[in-house]
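sanity check this record:

:::
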Amino acid sequence: MSQSLAAAGTSVGTSVGTSAGTAAGPPAVTAAAPTAGPAAGTSADPTAGPAAGPAVGESAGTSAGPTADTTATPAAELVLVGDLCRPARLTVPDLLGRPQHRAEVTFECATSGVRHHRFTGPLLYEVLADAGPGFDPVRRKDRLRFLIAVSGADGRHALLSWAEIDPDFGQAPVLLAVTLDGAPLDRAGPQLVLPRERCGARHTSGVSVIRVDGGYTSWA
């Protein structure tokens, strides 16, 4: 009686944890030369994203020889929309072409303890300012009615006010990070990093859409 052996392989994509942790003191953000919501069953580190599939050129099972994968994974794309004079579609390489800043962030995760991460990327303010928000140029405080809605590829969302990031007001050093602990995020997409937050509640991975909304004209 003949017997056949079936082999199957699974590849597990890497993810960096998600968290609603607390930062230990105000982290420093400095200029530097030229990282997705929690997945079930993982730790609570806010930098974690959905698990990635097999790497390019990696076979999904045992093979008698090398297997070529000719399907290239497209670079993640970020779309800037809303009340902007110059809406744009950007990739991580586009963001790398802007002035880079570094943030050392500590998350004190409820389920996985203290996590330290290093991010680099352009300031969110600089990226959005280049897109030309539709402020009234005559009224300096007109920008205070603008909100910024950030959406991640994993379905997470975060909301900021323009006043938080504007140098004339809050000047929070919020980053669109393009590297996480030295690893590039070309395929995963940029991460929204708020270094001053007590926890990583608004940290968003794989940022895919940022909408600038100035529709709040009445406060009644």
The domain at 91-220 is CATH 3.90.420.10 (Sulfite Oxidase; Chain A, domain 2). The first strand starts at residue 29 and ends at 32. Residues 127 and 160 are 15 Å apart (CA to CA).
